[in-house]
Design goal:
Length: 238
């Protein structure tokens, strides 16, 4: 498998398992309906861990443009490879969203709430205040990229196979501690590509795709990822 294909597959698995958990909690007549935030955060955490286990040895399992850019800033990934990886991540995220749509096909028509349908695919802030929402995404992704860099820099977890699990725990902690204000995109591909899928797929009574907010989960994670990489370089390599 080539790194491009691995990033497509890894990001597809991430979104399939993460958005799948959200769908189970929010869509009507799902057996997991109303299971709550713990289920959502656990689904995303395990989705990250499984994706990293699946393709980590092939592509490094960035599965997130903010991570790819952060690694490039930190000198751990060539800038020439950034556009190709990001393209693969957006393709994978779109495919993952389509698979979630298919997996829950009978439930869309049973769910009247348009916000719940959109939330399966993309993030919606609990309180819509763009500056505050942006800060939340920056902080969350700062923690993510700083954590990924420090975990992967430790030889023991990487060699023992613990790194993917630890990164999953990191995402779980971010979701539990920092995810509630915005739904913690912390990944431009994870939000924008499924949002596009929401716009294109035939979903009964879906409403609009909230494009006015869509820049926040792209800009915030990108800025947060760069800050995380800079702080890592200053503290641990300075």
């Amino acid at each position: 498998m080539q790194p491009f294909t691995a990033e497509v597959l890894g990001t597809m698995l991430l979104v399939l398992l993460g958005d799948g958990a959200v769908a189970g909690v929010l869509l009507n007549k799902s057996k997991a309906q109303n299971a709550g935030w713990i289920v959502v955060t656990t689904g995303w955490a395990l989705g990250v861990a499984m994706a990293v286990y699946a393709v980590g040895r092939i592509s490094g399992a960035h599965i997130n443009p903010a991570v790819t850019i952060g690694l490039a800033v930190a000198g751990k990934f060539p800038w020439a490879g950034v556009p190709r990886y990001i393209a693969a991540q957006f393709i994978g995220a779109f495919l993952g969203a389509v698979l979630v749509w298919l997996a829950y096909l009978p439930h869309w028509a049973e769910t009247e709430d348009k916000s719940s349908k959109l939330s399966v695919f993309s993030t919606i802030p609990a309180i819509r205040r763009y500056p505050a929402n942006l800060v939340t995404e920056i902080v969350g992704t700062f923690v993510l990229v700083l954590g990924v860099l420090t975990i992967t820099a430790n030889a023991a977890p990487a060699q023992s196979g613990l790194a993917p699990l630890l990164i999953g725990f990191l995402v779980w902690a971010i979701g539990l501690s920092l995810g509630a204000p915005t739904g913690y995109a912390i990944n431009p591909a994870r939000d924008l590509a499924p949002r596009l899928a929401h716009a294109l797929l035939p979903i009964a009574g879906k409403g609009d795709s909230d494009w006015g907010y869509s820049w926040v989960p792209v800009v915030g994670p990108t800025v947060g990822g760069v800050i995380g990489a800079v702080v890592y370089m200053g503290l641990f390599r300075g």
